[in-house]
Amino acid sequence: MLLIHCPYCDETLPEAEFAYAGEAHIARPADPMALSDEEWRDFLFIRSNPRGTHYERWRHVHGCGRFFNAVRDTVSDRFVTTYRAGEPRPDLSASTGAAR
Amino acid sequence: MTAFRIPGKGRIDHARPVRFTFDGRVVEGRAGDTVASALLANGIHLMGRSFKYHRPRGAVTAGSEEPNALIRTARGRGRAEPNTRATMQEIHESLAAESQNRWPALAFDVGAINDGLYMLFSAGFYYKTFMWPRSFWDRVYEPLIRRAAGLGRAPTDPDPDLYASRNLHCDVLVVGGGPAGLAAALAAARTGAEVVLVDEQAEIGGTLLSEPHLVIDGQPAWDWLAAALAELGAMPNVRLMPRTTAIGYYHQNMVGLCQRLTDHLADPPADAPRERLWRVRAGQVVLAQGAIEKPLVFDGNDRPGVMLSGAAQTFLHRFGVRVGRRAVVVTTHDSAWHTAFDLAAAGVRIAAIVDLRPGVDGALTARAAALGIEGLTGHTVTDTRGRLRVSGVRVNPVADGRVGPGRIVPCDALLMCGGWTPSLHLFSHTRGTLAWDEASGAFLPDRKTEACQIAGAGRGLWGVAAALEDGAKAGAEAAAAIGRATAPGTFAVQGDRPGTGLVVRELPTDADPGRAKAFVDFQNDVTAKDIRLAVREGMRSIEHVKRYTTTGMATDQGKLSNINGLMIAADALDRPAPEVGLTTFRPPYTPTSFGALAGYRRDGHFEVTRKTPIDPWAEAQGAVFEPVALWRRARYFPRPGEDMDAAVARECRAVRTGVGMFDASTLGKIEVVGPDAVTFLERMYTNPWAKLGVGRCRYGLLLGEDGFIRDDGVIGRLAPDRFHVTTTTGGAARVLSVMEDYLQTEWPDLDVWLTSTSEQWAVVAVQGPKARALLAPFVQGLDLSEAAFPHMSVAECTVAGFPARLFRVSFTGELGFEVNVPARHGRALWETLWQAGQAHGIAAYGTEAMHLLRAEKGFIIVGQDTDGTVTPQDAGLSWAIGKAKPDFVGKRSLVRPDIVAPGRKQLVGLLTEDPDVVLEEGAQIVADPRQPVPMRMIGHVTSSYRSGALGRSIALALVEGGHGRMGETLHVPMPGKTHAVRVTGVTFYDPEGARLKGEEVPA
Ligand SMILES: [Zn+2]
Predict the structure, then answer these.
(1) Angle CA(B337)–CA(B342)–CA(B343) in degrees, nearest 5?
(2) A65 interface with B at CB cutoff 8 Å
(3) Mean pLDDT, chain B, as a whole number?
(4) What is the DSSP string of B120-178?
(5) Per the UniProt entry, what are the Gene Ontology biological process annotations, in alphabetical order (chain A) (predicted)?
C-alpha cells in the first residue's frame, strides 16, 4: 500500500484514504461548444498514458475531501511529489524521489 | 523409541510422546516434531502422490518449500485444510493427517495409470490433446482430468475459525531468524531501535538449529542461540515472532506477515484466532531469508527416500531422526559432504558420496576416506531403483564428457545437493532486480527499490561466520539509516563449513534422455524432457516455457525448480542463463489461507449494511428486504399467505386507489448553498434553474461530459441561495464527488458549499388519491390545496409536530408527497401516519411496487433503464435539457457525431402480443425471428412487470432506432418460445397526468 502526502492536510497517509481521479492538467475548455469534434474528442478521451512520469489527480476522500495533483512514476508506482490543485506542474529537476 | 529416532538427539522433547493419525493409523512422535519428522522417525517416507502422474512421493525438504509431502490436516471440530506441508505442520494429539491424490490407498493408487500414459501427458498436453473434438472437453476430458489430477480436496463447510489482523509500525523488520537475521536484530536492537524479528519456523534459529557442532564466540551454537534469544527477548523494543511468515513485500516497506497461532495446539482456546495477518510498515527491512537447496535432475530423482541433503541434516540435528540406514549422497556442492559426515557420525551407513566434480577439496575426500566412505568424484547418477521407497541408485563414472558403465549401489536414502539458491522472493516482490553471479552460480540482488538490506546467504555468502558478520552489518546499516549509528560486532566461529559448488543442468547419463523421468518441478510433474520439448516446439521466453510446461506454477512457486528449469531451458535455447532470465515471483511467499486474508471481513462484517430509521418497523412487519447499494431496503410487505406477486399487486392497488406509504429515506440528498448555488446547478445539471422560483422543484438530469446519463433526482429551491438536491440511492456519494470535483478544480471561483444530508433526513413518501386527505390534518403552517401547493412544490413546515421539508412530488403518477423530517423523528412520523392511514386503507409498499408503479408511468431508473451509454435523447428526456443554456456538463457531447447518428438504442415501451407473458429483464430483441443463428440483436428489455392497473404485462426496452419504430412488431427469444411484442411509448398509465391532482379524479 502506497503512502500519499496530502498537500492540504500536510500529512503522509495510507493509500486507502485516497481515491484516484484521472490525469491532471486537463482543464475543462471555457467554451466547449466552440470546440471542433476532434478537439472535444481529445479532451474527453485522449490521455497521455506514459511509461514513467505521470501527472495525475487524487482526492483525499476519507480525509479533507480535497482534490490535488501528484506526480507518480507509472513503472515503480512511486509518488514523486504532490501539490495543490491549480498550481503549475512542479519543476522535477531538483527532485530526488523520482524512481526510474 | 523407533528405529530411526536417535535417543537424546535433536531439539524435540524425548520425554513427551505425542500421538496423531496418518491415514487413520496412529503414529507416535515427540513434542517438537513436524508430521514429516515424526513419519520419518517411524520409517515412513511415502507421504503423498504427485499431481499429474500420481507417482509415490516423500518429503524432499524439511521446510516451507516442500513440494511433495502435502497432506490434508483435520483439527477436530470440523476443521480441515488441504495441501498442508507435512514439513511445516507441528504434531499434536488432536491432529488427523491424511495423504492426498490417492485412491483407494496411498500404497496402491489407481490414478497412477497416468504414469504409464507418460508420453501422452507431456509438455503442453492440455493444449494438444484436448483441442479436438471440442465437445469432448466439457463432457469427457475435463471431468476426467479433474478427478484424476488436482491437489487435495477443499473443505465444504464454512470455516468456523477466527482470523485476526493488526497493523504494526517498527524501525527495523528482520525477516528470517537464522544467523544473519539474529545478528541483524541484535545490532539494530542494541541501538534502541524498535525491532521485529520474524521466522516461519516454530523455533527461531535457522541454520543454527541444524549445525549444533558450531562454536560461536566460545559457546556451542545452541547456547549462543539461547543467549541471543534471551537478550532479544528481554529488550522492550524487540518483538520476536516465530511461526510467522513474511508473505509479501509491498510498496514503501509494507510487509504482510501471516502468524500461525493455534494450528500447533491440541486444544486451542475457543476464542483464540487461528491466524493473524500483520500489516507492518517498517523504516528499514532486513531480508535474511537464507538460501534454498537445489535438487539434482536425474532419472528417478523423485522416489520416496530421495531428498535434499540439507533436509537430512535438519531431520538429524533438529529432530534426532535418521532418514535411512544406508544412504548414498549425490552432489555438486561441498555442503553435502558435511551432511554425509554428520550422518555417518550418527550411525547411518554412507554407501557412497557421488560428486560430479572431478576435483573436490582434498580435506573432504580425505575425511571421507578416514571414515571409510567411498568418495566417487567425477561420477554421476543415472537411475534409481525401488517403487514406494528408493532401494538403489545407478552410479556411473564420467570422464571427458563420456559416461562410463554403471553399477547399482543399494541404499534406502539418496541425498542430493545441486548447490544453493539465495531466497530472494520477497526482494523480487519489490521489483528489486537480480543479477547473475558467475562465481556463486546464482542470481544475487542487484538494484533495490525499497529501504532494505539483504544479508547472508540471501546475497550469496556461504557459511555461518559470513552470515553473522553480514547480518550484523545489515542491522547496523538499518539502524544508521533511521539515525541510530552503531558499529557492527564481530564473531569468532569455529567449525564453519562454507564450501563451494558447481551449477549443472541434468546430470550426465548413458541412458536415452528422451525416456528419463528426471523431475524438475516435483509437484507439477514437469521433467527436463518437458522443458526441452517446450523449447523445441517454439517457446522462446522463459514465461512461455513456464506456462506451457507448468514448471514453477505449483504451490511451492518453483522454490526448488526455477533455477534447474532455467538452466535446462537456457541450454535448449543455446543462450546464457542470465539472458533467458527468471520468471517473476509474486506474493504470497507460501500458500496463505483465505481466512487470514479476509480477517474480520466476513459475514455481517463483510461490508456495511446501512439501515434507515424506519427499517426496524419494516422488520417488525415481516418485510422482505433487498440490498440497494449498501442499504437494505424493504422490497415488499407480505401478509400471511402472500407471495411476492400477490403482495406487490395489493401494495400497488392501494397506491392507485387509496394511499400507500414508502420509506424513501435512502435517496441521496445534497444541500447546495451559497450566492452562486444557482449558477453551479445551471452548469452541473441539464435543466434550467435560474427561473425556478423559491418553493418550487424540478426534475434534474445529470450527465457526464460524454453526454451519457449519470444520475437524476428532484431538486427543490428553498431560498434564492439554497437548494435541496436529491440523487439516486446508489449515486449519492458519486454525485457529491463529481460536484466537489467541478467546484474545487474547474470553478473554484464559485461561492458554493456542498453538504451531504442523505442520513440527516428520513423521508416518508405518501402516494395515492387519498394522500392529501391523510396528510393534511398533520401539516401546520402550509396550505396543501391544489392551488396553494401544486405538483412540484416544496415548503418548510411542521408535520405531526416535527420540523419538515415537504415536497409535492410523484414517482408513481398519483398525487404524492414526500415528507422529510430529521432522521431521529422518522420512525415516529411513519408510525403516526401509519395509524392515521388505517382509516384510509393504507398499505406500506416496498421497492418492488415502487419499481412497478414508476414503470407504468415510464419513469426511468438510472442504472436499470440506462447503462452509461444512454443520452437524454435516447431516453426520451430531451424536454429536460435547457436548450437556451450556453453550457452544462455534457452539453457539447450531445452534438457529437456518434450521438446524433441514426440507429442509436432508444428507450421504448413493449407490449407483448400475449398479455400474460412477462418478458425477462435483459432478454435480447430481434427484428426477424426466422433469421439464421446467430441472430442480429437490436436491443434488450430493461424493465418488465405484470401491471395490475393495466391488467397485462408491460416492459421498457432499449431498441436501435426505437423512437422511429412505434407500432412495429419485434421479437424477444426466450427459453422455450419467441414472443412477439409491439413497440409503444413508455407511458402506459394515465398518459395525460390527470391523476397527479388526486382525489378530484375518480379512482
Ligand atoms: Zn487532506
Answers:
(1) 95
(2) yes
(3) 93
(4) TTSTTHHHHHTSSSHHHIIIIIHHHHHHHS-SS----S-----EEEEEEEEEEEEE--S
(5) tetrahydrofolate metabolic process
pTM beyond 0.80, yes or no: yes
3-state secondary structure B240-257: EECCEEEEEEEHHHEEEE
Lowest-confidence region among B540-554, B797-811, B954-968, B979-993:
B540-554
Domain B663-845 in the same topology as domain B163-291+422-494 = no
Q: How far is the CA of B166 from the centre of ligand 1 (A)?
A: 24
The residue written with cell numbers 457525431 in the block is B897
Write out chain A's pLDDT in tens, 100 residues. Answer: 899 999 999 999 999 999 999 999 999 999 999 999 999 999 999 999 999 999 999 999 999 999 999 999 999 899 999 999 999 999 887 655 443 3
User: Measured between alpha carbons, how far is B257 from B247 in angstroms, rounded to an integer?
Assistant: 6
CB B570 within 8 A of CB B577: yes
Q: What CATH code is carried by the domain that includes residue A22?
A: 3.30.2270.10
In a domain, residue A40? The reply is: yes
Domain ranges of chain B: 1-160, 163-291+422-494, 296-417, 504-593, 663-845, 902-1003
Contact B887 A32 (CB under 8 A): yes
Number of domains in chain A: 1
CATH of B504-593, one of 3.30.420.40, 1.10.10.1100, 3.90.550.10, 3.90.180.10: 1.10.10.1100
∠ Cα B333 B338 B344 (to 5°) = 135
Structural fold of domain B663-845: Gyrase A; domain 2 (3.30.1360)
The fourth-level CATH superfamily of domain B163-291+422-494 is FAD/NAD(P)-binding domain (3.50.50.60)
- The ipTM of this complex is 0.95
* pLDDT tens, position by position, B641-652: 999 999 999 999
Query: A15, A31, A38, A44: which to substitute to probe chain B, counting the most B Cβ within 10 Å?
Result: A44
Establish if A5 touches chain B: CB-CB under 8 angstroms.
no
Q: Residue B749: its chain A contacts at CB < 8 A?
A: none
CB-based contact B741 A67, cutoff 8 Å: yes
Mean pLDDT of B696-708: 98
B interface mutation test: which of A28, A43, A69, A76 has the most B CBs within 10 A? Answer: A28
Cis status, amide bond into B56, omega within 30 of 0:
no
- How many angstroms separate the first and last alpha carbons of chain A? 19
Grid cell locating B490: 564481530
Q: Provide, as residue numbers in chain A, all residues whose Cβ is less than 8 Å from the Cβ of B279.
A: 1
